[in-house]
Amino acid sequence: MTQTLPAKNNQKLQLSPLNIPNRLLLGPGPSNAHPDVLKAMNTAPVGHLDPAFLTLMDEIQSLLRYVWQTENQLTIAVSGTGSAAMEATIANAVEPGDVVLVGVIGYFGNRLVDMAGRYGADVRTITKPWGQVFSLDELKTAIETHRPRIVALVHAETSTGARQPLEGVGELCREHDSLLLVDSVTSMGGVPLYLDEWGVDLAYSCSQKGLGCPPGASPFTMSPRAIEKLQNRQTKVANWYLDMNLLSKYWGKERTYHHTAPINLYYALRESLRLLAEEGIENSWERHQNNAEYLWQGLEDLGMTLHVEKQYRLPTLTTVRIPEGLDGKAIAREMLLEDNLEVGGGLGELGGKVWRIGLMGYNSRKENVDKLLEVLKKKIK
Ligand code: PLP
Question: Cofactor(s) for this protein (predicted)?
Fold first, then answer.
């Protein structure tokens, strides 16, 4: 029999029950979850192979296809945050030696570069100053020069607030036998996006932004062209957890156990997608655009300057320049601690230069814009 030893108690904290402040999350994400989503999340878990749960998985798949405007059969939620779904696209699509062309317009483009390199890709990059986007001509030239197997673009660059137009890129990719991979973490649900119409072959997103859900269950999809590449691989997918050969058997007809799904997160995701379908995706896009324009006008009325040219601005994430002479980081901290209102600071090249204001999902509401403008007005005068 194992001898019992006296337990060490030096890490044994004596805590009171959880008490987290109630914040309005108007930063780059997470955004506040819809109250109905939190309620759904509070439902008692069932088993991950329970028929009731399998039905819920089917519903999630269908609603993800609706929100993304795709008929891709392989459309699932990855158990993990947006980065896990991002890594899933790279892990499944990239084989060592593949040329992967990444359009870098900010921080998350660089993350794609890092990930693709880790999976053995021959990574080529094109870059733009942070806040700008590529024209179709620039992408055409790059595709003709590099002849990539995969072209990876960030639709909504959260670090800069810029929206990369995607119209026409899918056709270019087809002409050159490339797959088009798109990051839609900050666009899904809030920015018009038509995966099939635009010829996107691989896409991923997250739950905690435009879908108004807590983080942890992340949309992922693969077109038949991308599946064909997966099926013709010479090497195994170098990531067991994210291998779609295995995961598709859990989400598909076989229902083979792969991992224990985070049941309650999927409850939450299902409710957030249900609410989005009830509103209608076009209405959601319109709501995000209207509230963003209301914000932009309010910021300009305060004498502030927006970082991105209007036609490329994201409705979900706005970058506004910090007025000369102000300590942006200190003000954001004050807003958080005194006003319970979170905004983000600049990342990378834009560190210390901009605040990042998110109006995503449930948080994209006029009253939130009014609250933010009222607080900001006091801080910058
Ligand atoms: N891609 C973009 C554009 C993002 O904004 C983020 C997160 O903000 C990610 C990827 C990574 O997602 P997560 O933080 O959920 O892992």
Answer: pyridoxal 5'-phosphate
